[in-house]
Specification:
This protein is of the alpha+beta class. The protein has a single domain, classed as 60s Ribosomal Protein L30, Chain: A (2-Layer Sandwich). The chain is about 30% helix and about 30% strand. A 5-stranded mixed sheet has the order 1-2-4-9-10, with no helix packed on it. It has a 5-stranded mixed sheet with strand order 3-6-5-7-8, covered by helices on one side. Helix 1 crosses helix 2. The longest helix has 21 residues. The chain is globular and about 40 Å long. It starts with a strand and ends in a 6-residue tail after the last helix.
Length: about 190
């Protein structure tokens, strides 16, 4: 996580990386760059809190095993962390709404199959938000181009910029390294969800 100041929007900006999240009740910007990964922007309008996460599932799963899949646990963990911190800041779980971004085919743009990383990420997010009863207000997902996302939790505004094709190799390399590290973790850990 890196803190900066956004000169055009004249407010602090927190840049999150894969595997990170940030929640706030201040007039700040949360920013990230996405390829295959997904970011969920959550907001409790009534209580004035919001946040964003950035995660990738290291493999595929079926909707039936959302709570038991070794790979889905990364998404589950990312969602539970952000929701828990929003509640600690005064948010109400029943009031949360979502905006979803990412899941581009930057790692496997030729083979856009149902078992691809972006499809698994998107399938997980849809299943999780549906099970939690969290309404998705907006989304910008899929395609072959990465995205730069700026989220202003106080107002709920989101700015999305599609990245030029020239950025794809760098983004794909970064996400490939992140995906490999997640797969190593899945193989090396013994975890039981209950």
């Amino acid at each position: 996580m890196v803190k900066r100041f956004h000169r055009k929007l004249k407010r602090p900006m927190i840049v999150i990386q894969p595997g990170e999240y940030y929640v706030t009740n201040k007039d700040e910007i949360i920013a990230t760059v996405l390829g295959s990964c997904v970011s969920v922007c959550l907001k409790d309008e009534r209580n004035g809190v919001g946040g964003m996460n950035h995660f990738m599932l290291p493999g595929d799963f079926s909707q039936e095993d959302v709570f038991t899949s070794q790979s889905a646990r990364y998404g589950m963990y990312a969602m539970e962390l952000i929701m828990g911190d929003l509640i600690k800041l005064g948010g109400d779980r029943q009031q949360l709404t979502a905006k979803v971004f990412g899941a581009a085919h930057v790692l496997d743009s030729v083979a856009q199959s149902q078992t691809s990383v972006p499809e698994a990420n998107l399938k997980f997010v849809k299943a999780f938000l549906s099970m939690e009863g969290i309404k998705v207000l907006k989304s910008d997902v899929g395609g072959i181009y990465g995205r730069k996302v700026l989220y202003l939790p106080k107002s709920g505004k989101v700015f999305v910029k599609k990245l030029k094709p020239e950025a794809a190799p760098d983004l794909a390399a970064m996400e490939s390294r992140y995906q490999k590290s997640l797969r190593r973790e899945v193989k090396s850990e013994d975890l039981t969800l209950f």
